[in-house]
Specification:
With about 375 residues, the protein is α/β, with parallel strands linked by helices. It has 2 domains: about 230 residues, 3-Layer(aba) Sandwich (Aspartate Aminotransferase, domain 2), CATH 3.40.640.10; about 120 residues, Aspartate Aminotransferase, domain 1 (Alpha-Beta Complex). It contains 13 helices and 16 strands. The structure holds pyridoxal-5'-phosphate.
Length: about 375
């Protein structure tokens, strides 16, 4: 049992779980079939269900989002240098290092906090082979402009779409942009399979290459065509995903309600900036605020104040990826190259947002933020 203090904590996010009873029949089927992994029936059903739900033509399931990122880079044979954002979860750049690729950090847009298309061209060198942007907090990148640059220079585009499950841009699903998009189904994400992830691609041939790569490179019992890895999603995760998908629309709706409540209450608070509301379907995965100099408290004092009230907000994304020791020495990681990202990392707090939050809890968060002085 959880100690009572644990249950009073208001966490930045908390996984949605279906009733345990509803999962038992799925487990019974797995026990019956004894197929635990290797593209079993639940794996195939979840791929089909996600193709339908997300409106994408091809999707390959993975055991987590990071292995999906690592494999996406392998699938397109990316080498040399890749342009990416420092303002993300560390796995974005780690997936490059794991492939022996050098990340080249480019600064972000001050409003969307996504990779700034105006700064990409200046970072391209003869070694650049791809761009890896992140739809940060589920806000779509400027996909058209990024694609144009990629086309002009013959670069691939791989989106880290770990935050972007169910997000639509002006022209439909955001996952249909770029060469590949990578999703995460980690426990902290909008749609979870405990751990999990996926690569979205646009043609059957690429999907087949990805499927080979995630299964050691095996094509059949005796043929191995690539130095693949083991990235397969298990049947228990896939079955759980099918059940989770039934509740996803209700979960997104609950998030939307909380987002609206935060926005309304924070609109006139001096020194607090919310990210802009966008057109198209959002997933309300995070609720970042930027704490400016006009606010009576510093960002970190507000962060501590929230904790004193049992509110565990998070400073995503602080520190910047480019400030971690394995990246710090790279020329593109220099703070003067990344002033906008630096400023955002020093100002941001992500307030709790998840379907399990009660109105009272949201009001408590707001009271601490609004009444600070
Ligand atoms: C969560 C996350 C990942 C990693 O996904 P896992 O499924 O946890 O491996 C990668 N990139 C971003 C931006 C993320 O938020």
């Amino acid at each position: 049992m959880m100690p009572p203090t644990e249950s009073r904590k208001i966490l930045v996010t908390q996984p949605v779980l279906p009733p345990l009873d509803a999962f038992i029949p799925y487990l019974e089927q797995i026990w019956e079939s004894r197929q635990l992994t290797n593209s079993g029936p639940f794996h195939q059903q979840l791929e089909q269900a996600l193709r339908d739900y997300l409106g994408v033509s091809q999707i390959a399931l993975f055991t987590n989002g990071t292995l999906a990122l690592v494999t996406a880079l392998q699938a397109l044979r990316i080498t040399g240098e890749v342009i990416t954002t420092p303002y993300s979860f560390v796995a974005t750049a780690h997936s490059l290092l794991w492939n022996g690729i050098r990340p080249v950090f480019v600064d972000i847009d001050p409003v969307t906090l996504n990779l700034d298309p105006d700064r990409i061209e200046a970072a391209i060198t003869p070694h650049t082979t791809a761009i890896m942007p992140v739809h940060c907090y589920g806000h779509p990148c400027e996909v058209e402009r990024i694609q144009k640059i990629a086309d002009n220079y013959g670069l691939k585009v791989i989106y880290d779409a770990a935050h972007a499950f169910g997000v639509h841009g002006q022209d439909g699903n955001i996952l249909n942009h770029g060469d590949l998009s990578v999703l995460s189904f980690h426990a902290t994400k909008v749609f979870n399979t405990f751990e999990g992830g996926a690569i979205v691609c646009h043609d059957a041939k690429t999907k087949q290459r990805i499927d080979h790569l995630k299964n050691f490179g095996f094509v059949d019992e005796v043929t191995v065509v690539a130095p693949g890895i083991n990235g397969k999603m298990s049947e228990i995760m896939a079955a759980f995903g099918l059940l989770q998908l039934q509740g996803i629309d209700a979960a997104l709706h609950k998030r939307q309600t909380i987002d609206a409540r935060y926005r309304a209450a924070l609109a006139d608070v001096k020194g607090i900036t919310c990210l802009p509301v966008r057109e198209g379907r959002a997933n309300y995965a995070y609720f970042p605020i930027l704490v400016g100099p006009e606010y009576p408290l510093s960002r970190d004092t507000l962060y501590e104040r929230l904790r004193e009230h049992g509110i565990y907000a998070r400073r995503y994304f602080y520190p910047l990826i480019s400030d971690f020791p394995m990246y710090r020495g790279m020329p593109s990681a220099a703070p003067e190259n990344l002033p906008v990202a630096k400023a955002a990392a020093e100002r941001v707090i992500c307030l709790p947002i998840h379907p399990g939050l009660s109105e009272d809890q949201v009001d408590l968060v707001l009271r601490v933020v609004v009444e600070a002085d």
